[in-house]
Structure formats: C-alpha cells, structure tokens
Please model this.
Amino acid sequence: MITLYGIPNCNSVKKTRAWLEAHDIAYQFHDFKKSGIDVMTLKKWLKSIPLDVLINKKGTTWRGLSDAEKAMANTPETAIELMMNKTSVIKRPVVVCDAQIFVGHDEDALQKLLPS
Model:
C-alpha cells in the first residue's frame, strides 16, 4: 500500500496525486493538517531521509519561523518536535511504499512503484 503524506493544496502533492491517479495506482492520502504526524513515523523517515531533505527551508512556513524555531531543525530530536508542531515545514509530498520512502514530486521514483 502506498501512503502519500502532505497537504491537499500543495502543488507538488497535487502533481503526485494526479500522476498516481493517471497511472491507476491506489494510494492512501495522509493530510498533515487534519491528522498531524507522530514521533515514530518521523523517526522512521529520518533513518532513510536526511534531515536537510525532510525539512523544507524554501517555503513560506520556514520563512515565518523565529530564529529559535529554525535552530530546532539542526538536530533530529528538536527537528521532530518542530515538524510535529509545524507540519507545513515538512517537504511534500512524502511517499511511502513498503520500504521505499521518497520526498518531493519525483516521477522517476514514482515509475518504480508501477507493477512490472
């Protein structure tokens, strides 16, 4: 089962959802705004995704953070707290399929989800 994490109005999430639907790939959508994100999921992601990739430092949420909040992104422990409290700071989408996890709209990675 594929789970796509993000927020519905994000352009990258919209592109990824459209790609999956165009290729008839079933997925579950996890809306950060409605459902949040838990510690265990973030810890699991950070085992295979570098912190500087998982946190979106180019978005409006990042630009609106205080210096103290931005400093939380420097270590995994405090970054997890930041991502749980400000889910929009997580780069989107995060696509999880079994052991595969990738971040952002990536058609090459999506192609690998197609049945052989």
Notes: Residues 25 and 114 are 8 Å apart (CA to CA). The domain at 2-111 is CATH 3.40.30.10 (Glutaredoxin). The mean pLDDT is 94. The chain has one domain: 2-111.
